[in-house]
Every structure is written in structure tokens, then in C-alpha cells.
Design a protein that fits this description.
The complex is a heterodimer of chains A (about 325) and B (about 325). With about 325 residues, chain A is of the alpha/beta class. In chain A, about 35% of the residues lie in helices and about 20% in strands. In chain A, strand 10, helix 7 and strand 11 form a beta-alpha-beta unit. The chains are: A alpha/beta (about 325), B alpha/beta (about 325). The interface between A and B is large, with 41 and 46 residues.
Chain lengths: ~325, ~325
């Protein structure tokens, strides 16, 4: 997979997603979008704007507020030869559709010995920092990693959002694309033409030698700022954007650990049974001898996301917490 | 398919329905024995007494029509035409099974016959079937989609979401409810206030019809109309087939703790196979006996072949999750 066009220009994260949807729907008539307020309204976050006008009502389907129902319907359409792209307005709403996502979609290919083909994408957005409180702020990716059968990716930039949405649509498996509401306002350089990223790759976003910060989604940007501050204190932090949480890119992870020998993991979701916990277990199983220090984490609190600004900020990762923990890694 | 959707003769068509019913019975009898002998793993949910619904319903469908069923749906799967040998091998967890031994009886799936899956979750496959109908609409096709479920499924929220969207979008859907009066061990009257299930459909604007589910011809007739309506783009139909599971919910449930002997006897007296034999009459006795013998033989051959087939290879343990 590759970028065909060389031209880039600065556009927003949602515009980048919208562009991927337009391009993929134009390329393959089996691709369709389905979800709440995505057609006539254009999407709560505008990612599906213009699709109804461009592709018509058979390929842009507004649904009632029935997440379990329309994810099941998307599954059936996928098994009948379509390539549905579901928009799930908030990650939190996945919890009313867990049977469909985890018992049906995620298991369909394996438990049918490959007889069922499920090229299905669920796009959703999670995350806090916006005062949206406990039921509109969650990063729930760990739940969807714990039950096997879904690929899970978390684009952190506009270019990655375009590339991963396109990559997810072309992938022949069920893929959960986790966007972040803090990133929807972000602008960046995005290839204009076809831009398709492979699923399962991590990227070194900043080179460093003293420690590696593994992160993804919005927290990547906090980690990059932290690395900048650490550099001012003479600490060289490498920042790796995991991007794809399933599958994980072990060659990139391993190369970075082997280079820095110290690891900090930063993510917004709670620490208990989270991505960081799993990564720590796997790193020490695979390359314990490479580690010069215990692996530390900066994560969201093991509490529901609180509403009041000071409480929410205290419960979620921040640049200062990442800086402090990075320094602790070097002690 | 053993049955024909456009019968050359009325008798031939009826004998086809009869064959599906006795095939289902022969399979269930053999599976029960295998389960008792410890050769069949897991739960065994039988449809004894409900044989007429799958035979009548599937006779109205084409191979390319999509459908989903529950964990009690093996009768539909066979009647739709899915290979008996593959089905039996899957039920016995063999490498040669329909789904390579990875799913078992509750997850039988074969999209080449429109089978978008049996399901272990009550109501779990209702939306999937509506998705098949949505795909048909998108393709401007005349394919219809059917989902089969029990009365208990009408108390699952997902079912109502799917009913609502099928009606809203006027999809070519058939919601076939086998009302056998019990949701597992709980009677309908202790599960819902409105026990006339067709009444619930008024809330969605879905045409609803109730039929004698122990009469395969009656089931076929209402299905034929619903299918024709769907093919013409005239929207979904809800069919309530009144029937009764004369066996228990699964192999370790005799079905007697929550039902009276009198009630069971009353339904056994109108069990569909014997009733249909009576309808077909003594003049066809020789043909019926022959069909019975043939189906027992076919089922036995499938079971014997499956028992002789290898278990799945451990090398395949990690395969098939992602393609």
C-alpha cells in the first residue's frame, strides 16, 4: 500500500477522513457508510459531509439510534458482499452494541473457519479533555483488544487518519478505527490523492537514545511535547506512535527497546488491564535482558472520567506527568 | 435442495417437504445417541416437534436468499440445501466440517447457500439477516432475507432495533418466529404481557400473520406470499408459526419440569411428521417408508464419514481469524 499522489496540502483531521471516505467510495461501489446523522446532517463531526450528495441514499444510510441494530445489519451486509463503514458517534456508545461487536463481528471469521468474510470498518471517536464527562469521554480500546478478532488502529494525525481509514476499508477483516475528539480540530499535511496506510505498523515520531515513550492517539502529541521539554533537560526521548494496537508492530517496538533500554508507556485509557499493562508483560517476556529499568506508565485514572475541569485534567495524561515519569525511568 | 420451489406435481412437492422433515428427525435421533454415548461434545438443542416449519419455509426460498437461524436451526440449514455431510462433520468437530470444526453446531455458516450464520446468542443474528436484506436492496436484487427465531427472541432489544429498521427501509425481510410457547424453560405468559406476538408488529408497521407451524403446507403458503412480497420490494413480513418443542430445551432437559404431561401429550398428538403422513394418505405409504429408509441411510452415512474423519489439525489453531 502506498501513497500515489505526491501533492500534499494542509487540511483538518475530519476533512482527511472525509477525503478517504469519498475516495474509497468512488473506487469501490461495495463500500457504503451507515450510522447516526451521517447522511442528511453530514455527521456529528462532519467526517461524512457531502457523501449523501455524491453517492446517494443506497450508500449513505442514516439510522435510528440503534447501535446494536445497525452494527448487526452492517455485519450481514458485509457477509453478503458489501464493505460497510459504520460510524459510531461516540466510542462510549459501543457499549450498547457489545454483543454485535464482540460476539458477532469479531468472531464471525474464526468461528466459521473462514466461511464468513467480514470486511467491516467501525469508525468511532473517543477521549476526554473536553468536559464531556463519564459517558462521552472514554478511550475503550483495551476492551476491543481483549476479545480477539478485531484489528484496532488509532490515527494521531490528519495524514494518518486518511491513510488508516482507507487502509481499514481495503483490509478484508473487521477493523475498529479509533479517532480522538481532541484531534478533530487538528490540521496537518495530507496527501491529496490516494493515501493508504498498512495496518500493523508503528512509527518512530522522534528519535532518541535515553528512553522510549510508546504511545498512540492524542497522547502522542503530549508525549512529543514532553520529549521537547526533556530535551531541554538533556534527556533524549524516543517517541514511538504505536498507531496499530492489533496487530502490534513488534519489529519497531523491539528495535526501539533494544536501542534505549528504558521504556515509558503513555495512554489515556485507564491503567488496569490496559494496553500499557499488556505491553509491559510482552516486552519483559520477549526481551527482559534489554531492560535497564522497570517499565513505567502514564495512564488515565482507574475512575470514570470526571466532569470538572481540574478533576478531568488530574485524571488524564499530561505533558508534565509524562516528563516526570520519563525522568523516573532514568533514575 | 431436495424440495422444489416450483413443484412439477403437487405430490412430488409434498414428498419433498416430507423428506426434509424426516431427514431432520433422522439426524436428531442419531445426534441424541451420539450425545448420550459421549461422542458429541457440547450442548444439543433439538427441534423435535418443530420439523414442519423449516421444511415449509425453506421450500419458498431460493439458494441465493440469505438467512440466519438460532442454535436450534439445523433443520433450516439442511432444508436450504447446505451439504448434510459438511454439517454433520461440523457438529462432530471434524477437520472436514463446514466450518473446519471451529464453530460447531451453534455457529454453522455457509454464505454460498445464503446462510449468514446460526447463532449462540438469542437474537444475535437478527440484524445480520436484515443486513442481507439491505445488501439485496443496494444491489437492486430480488433476493429476500429471512431470520428464524423463537418467541423468546422478541424480548431482546436488538430484535426490535432490527425490526424497526427493516420496516423503516421497507426491506425484503421475513421475520419467522417459531412460537413454541417457551423461552428455554419459561412460558411465554411469564415473559411478556402481550402473548399474541403478531400484535407487537403493529408498533413497527410490519404485516404480521400467524400460521399453524405444524403444517408444512400452511407454512409454505404464508412464506411463499411473504417471499413474493419481498421480491417485489413491498417490504418485510412477520410470520408467527405456532409450534411446540416436544423435547426439552437441550439434551439434559427432559422438558417435563415446567410443562404438564397433558400439555406435551396434546402437542405430540399433532406432531407434524405423523400428521403429514396422515394427510399424504395410505396410498403413499410405500413411498414414505422408502423416504424414511433413505434418509436414515443418508444420515448414517454422513455420521459414519464424520466419525472416521480427522480432528482439525493443531497447526490450524491460529488460522482463520484474519484473512
Amino acid at each position: 500500500m502506498s501513497t500515489v499522489a505526491t501533492e500534499t496540502r494542509t487540511i483538518g483531521y475530519t476533512a482527511a477522513i472525509s477525503e478517504a471516505l469519498h475516495q474509497e467510495m468512488a473506487r469501490d461501489s461495495n463500500v457504503f457508510v451507515i450510522g447516526e446523522d451521517i447522511g442528511h446532517f453530514g455527521g456529528m463531526f462532519r467526517a461524512t459531509e457531502g457523501l449523501l450528495e455524491a453517492f446517494g441514499e443506497k450508500r449513505v444510510i442514516d439510522t435510528p439510534i440503534s447501535e446494536s441494530g445497525f452494527i448487526g445489519i452492517a455485519l450481514g451486509a458485509a457477509m453478503a458482499g458489501k464493505r460497510p463503514v459504520v460510524e459510531l458517534m461516540f466510542f462510549d456508545f459501543a457499549l450498547v452494541a457489545m454483543d454485535q461487536i464482540l460476539n458477532q463481528v469479531a468472531k464471525a471469521q474464526y468461528m466459521t473457519g473462514g466461511m464468513a468474510k467480514v470486511p467491516l470498518v467501525i469508525r468511532t471517536q473517543g477521549g476526554g479533555y473536553k468536559g464531556a464527562a463519564a459517558q462521552h469521554s472514554q478511550m475503550l480500546e483495551a476492551l476491543f483488544l481483549h476479545v480477539p478478532g478485531l484489528k484496532v488502529v488509532c490515527p494521531a494525525t490528519p495524514a494518518d487518519a486518511k491513510g488508516l481509514v482507507a487502509g481499514a476499508i481495503r483490509d478484508n477483516n473487521p477493523v475498529l478505527v479509533v479517532e480522538h475528539k481532541q484531534l478533530y480540530g487538528m490540521k496537518g499535511e495530507v496527501p491529496e490523492g490516494e493515501h493508504v496506510l498498512p495496518l500493523g505498523k508503528a512509527y518512530v515520531r522522534r528519535e532518541g537514545t535515553d528512553l522510549t515513550i510508546f504511545t498512540y492517539s492524542y497522547t502522542l502529541h503530549l508525549a512529543l511535547q514532553a520529549a521537547e521539554e526533556l530535551a531541554a533537560s538533556g534527556i533524549s526521548a524516543e517517541v514511538v506512535d504505536l498507531q496499530s494496537l492489533n496487530p502490534l508492530d513488534w519489529s519497531t517496538i523491539q528495535a526501539s527497546v533494544t536501542k534505549t533500554h528504558r521504556v515509558l508507556i503513555a495512554h489515556e485509557s485507564p491503567g488496569r488491564c490496559g494496553v500499557g499493562a499488556d505491553l509491559i508483560a510482552q516486552i519483559q517476556e520477549r526481551m527482559f535482558d534489554e531492560l535497564d529499568a522497570p517499565i513505567l506508565r502514564v495512564t488515565g485514572g482507574d475512575i470514570p472520567v470526571p466532569f470538572a475541569q481540574n478533576l478531568e485534567e488530574a485524571s488524564l495524561p499530561s505533558v508534565s506527568r509524562i516528563v516526570a515519569q520519563a525522568k523516573a525511568c532514568l533514575e | 435442495m431436495a424440495t422444489v420451489s416450483k413443484p412439477d406435481t403437487q405430490t412430488e412437492f409434498k414428498l419433498g417437504l416430507y423428506r426434509q422433515m424426516v431427514r431432520l428427525r433422522a439426524l436428531e435421533q442419531r445426534l441424541t445417541k451420539l450425545s448420550r454415548d459421549g461422542q458429541l461434545r457440547g450442548s444439543l438443542h433439538l427441534a423435535t416437534g418443530q420439523e414442519a416449519v423449516p421444511a415449509g419455509a425453506c421450500a419458498a426460498l431460493r439458494k441465493d436468499d440469505t438467512f440466519t437461524v438460532t442454535y436450534r436451526g439445523h433443520g433450516y440449514i439442511l432444508a436450504k440445501g447446505v451439504d448434510l455431510n459438511l454439517v454433520v462433520a461440523e457438529i462432530l468437530g471434524r477437520a472436514t466440517g463446514l466450518n473446519k470444526g471451529k464453530g460447531g453446531k451453534m455457529h454453522l455458516t455457509d454464505p454460498s447457500y445464503g446462510l449468514l450464520g446460526a447463532n449462540g446468542i438469542v437474537g444475535g443474528g437478527v440484524g445480520t439477516a436484515v443486513g442481507g436484506a439491505l445488501a439485496s436492496w443496494m444491489d437492486n436484487s430480488d433476493r429476500v432475507s429471512m431470520t428464524v427465531f423463537g418467541d423468546g427472541t422478541l424480548n431482546q432489544g436488538h430484535t426490535h432495533e432490527a425490526l424497526n429498521m427493516a420496516a423503516l427501509w421497507n426491506l425484503p425481510m421475513i421475520f419467522l418466529c417459531e412460537n413454541n410457547l417457551y423461552a428455554e424453560m419459561t412460558p411465554l405468559s411469564r415473559s411478556t404481557k402481550v402473548t399474541d406476538l403478531t400484535q407487537k408488529m403493529a408498533a413497527y408497521g410490519i404485516e404480521a400473520v400467524s400460521v399453524d407451524g405444524n403444517d408444512p403446507l400452511a407454512v409454505y403458503e404464508v412464506m411463499r406470499k411473504a417471499v413474493e412480497k419481498g421480491r417485489k420490494g413491498k417490504g418485510p413480513t412477520f410470520i408467527e408459526a405456532m409450534t411446540y418443542r416436544t423435547c426439552g430445551h437441550y439434551q439434559n432437559d427432559p422438558g417435563t419440569q415446567y410443562r404438564t404431561p397433558a400439555e406435551i401429550a396434546e402437542w405430540e398428538a399433532q406432531a407434524p411428521i405423523a400428521r403429514f403422513e396422515k394427510h399424504l394418505g395410505a396410498k403413499l405409504a410405500a413411498e414414505l417408508a422408502q423416504i424414511n429408509a433413505e434418509e436414515i441411510k443418508v444420515v448414517d452415512a454422513a455420521v459414519d464419514a464424520a466419525l472416521a474423519a480427522p480432528a482439525p489439525s493443531i497447526d490450524d489453531l491460529q488460522k482463520d481469524m484474519f484473512v
